[in-house]
Amino acid sequence: PLYYYFDGSRFIFASELKAIRQHKLDLKVNTTALNFFFYQKYIGGELAIFENCWKLKPSENLIFDLTTKKISRMQYYNLEEKIAECSQMPPAQRIELIEETIVDAVEKRLIADVPVGSFLSGGLDSSLISAIIAGSKKDFDTFSIGFRDESYDEVKYSRMVSEYIGTKHHVEYMDIDEPLMEYIIARMDEPFGDSSLLPTYLLSKITRQNVTVSLSGDAGDEVFGGYDTYKAYKLARYVPVPVVRAAKPLINLLPVSEKKLSLTFKVKKFVNDFGGHINRRHLDWMATFPDERRRCLLADRFIESESFINCDGENSLLSLQLNDIHNYLSEDILKKVDLASMLTSLEARTPFLDYRLVPMVLSLPEKYKIKGFTTKWLLKKIASKYIPSKIIHRPKRGFTVPVSRWVKQSGLIREFITNRRYYDTGLLDYEYVNNMYDEHISGRRDTARQLWLVFVFNYWSNLASARRAFGYAH
Prior knowledge:
By secondary structure, the protein is α/β, with parallel strands linked by helices. Strand 6, helix 5 and strand 7 form a beta-alpha-beta unit. 48% of the residues lie in helices and 10% in strands. Helix 19 packs across helix 22 (448-462), helix 20 (411-418) packs across helix 22 and helix 21 crosses helix 22. The longest helix has 27 residues, at 317-343.
């Protein structure tokens, strides 16, 4: 990222907010950024957590005129224009080029004068990339993180792929690690609520002990069409509105589950987010605190999400993909990997973000991405030449952590959620949060995702440097 501060006279820029905060500035929390964080668990677009602070968006240039003290920004790359250009090519030609480009994109990212490895979760994306590498490179190292909770653990799949393609596989298991939580949050410039940052850091750490560069499967879902929300978009076409309205009260009575992405969780999200504009529905599906819950959390600091998100776009799969690429991918997934890898001095490279590949895949008709309810259809067809069928067609899990159990068992999390002194900034409603905590501990409702964001925010704001920014003593 590139952050900058401008108050009409002083212009300061740096790659970290920490550097900007070394200056004597009267920094206050940006209410819109606060709402964005609790809505989507990251702070998106040009926003930063403090007022008068912003960040450049992807593919932006900024010019600061020293004479007039005016700022102008411009975009030097437009993905939508590139997609339109690729659309002029016959689909059959594009499909042929896509497979060649994937292989070439992987091989180009192996060029280095230091050791190179690959993350290997056992999912489709990282498995395909690792298999392509293993096809031409001997003594190749792959890396994964496992969990003691079986519903979250995917090590058996990563081992299966490693044995199939012949790599030296490194695995480390993680559980509740409070010192790690403190270490990671203390190094955040601004609140970041993706809990998978912790295992991503550990993954980067064990990887860096063996190699200096690692390839990652990130962006495969956004580019090739792999998320459950994309299937929900297709399903919503065929389900009558009255049926969903009638079923909603009953479905919301279903018991909670601590299992990873349980069917109950998915069904509840589908019925609660049904209706409205396609992109709004999609963002609400991803939301941690939808508007009605965020209003309770933030009280008079609440801002409706329509004021800071863009719901434009046609009713199409491509519109959802572009939404994810411009928001979730750039501000959550890539930020997470960048933060985790840079903390360990590991360079992460993402072949699926190759500038030739992305617009070519996105330009394809929908049937090549999702056929029926089979996601990433084209990528799975390509992968069938490289990895076992049971890896290609196994249910998607994603890289998440057992945060529901962590919230119940961690004393550190409990302290920063239940102790009233961490609410003296007046930004969050103490009573509302503690009611959520009681619901979660009793098992009446799974509010772990919401409570994790509160924990991260309270811990972050309590750090000495952040406390000074709020105008409170440590």
